[in-house]
Amino acid sequence: MVKSIGDEYTWARECLLDLKEDAIEIEHLVTDADSSAYKAALDLHNEGINNVEPENFLDTRHLSDHVRKGAKSDKTLLKVMPATTKLKRQKLLNNFSVDLTERCNKELALAYKFYAGDFFKVKNKISHTVDAIANCYMGNHARCRKNSFACKGFQGSWLKGRPFLQNTFKISSNNENLDLLRKQINKRLGSKVLDKTRLNMNTNFVEGFNRSLRRSLPSNVTFKKNMSGRAHAAAHSVNYGPGESILELCSALHCDIPVGSSAYKALKNIQKLTFCRKKHKQSVNYKVFEVKKGASYTNYTKNLAK
Ligand SMILES: [Zn+2]
Questions:
Q1: What is the ipTM of this complex?
Q2: Which of 8, 19, 149, 186 could form a disulfide with 110 if both were Cys (CB 3.0 to 4.6 A apart)?
């Protein structure tokens, strides 16, 4: 039977059974919110094949993306954006959705730091922080001083120096807007979601490795003889970095690349560039650029549609 790549349930079941053969049982399973992989793990437990009951966690990066996109496409939120035209409001909402997601993540990170990783204290405090954040975006910082980690009220407001929103950004203050903001913030900081992201895990490494594997073993080429070798080389390259990996592999085969030779320098250079690029992608400047690029692309497609 041909299985679809998207059939996560079957694949997860097969992987888990494979692990079971090596006497490994899964306790924590990190997935997307819409994944059926957890159902597979749960079924294996219910069928009595696995003894350990699995617990499902949400991938924090996908969750943040999901929250950001949810805010970005929220029609009611669009209406309350403080701008004069619909186009400007949409632009502002795009920026606001990025800022809101970062605010939630920042509050959470600072809370964990403050309580030295004590989840129950963090959860308790964050339940008050949700209101502080909502009020903060409406220009009321009274709660920030007590319940926010990222905003110090008027002395050091969260929006001061933020790359996505102006310092003067303010959603008009009323109960409907408060509820609206609260609803958005609870998608990341609500108590159930906090439980499901308690261990702060994501699947970035897995996805990074998958990309690398696909590069080494493209689906349009069949590597009859060295398929497993290429797969192992991909794993090695991800762990060590592309330059260091080749140096290590050569050294293991007793054909060391002489230090100072042009090949050696080139490989070191590749290694350095990869890490610089990685760092750059995590920087604020890059994210701002991405937002601007996204905005100009939207304009471009709109112009095409005209
Ligand atoms: Zn504030």
A1: 0.97
A2: 149
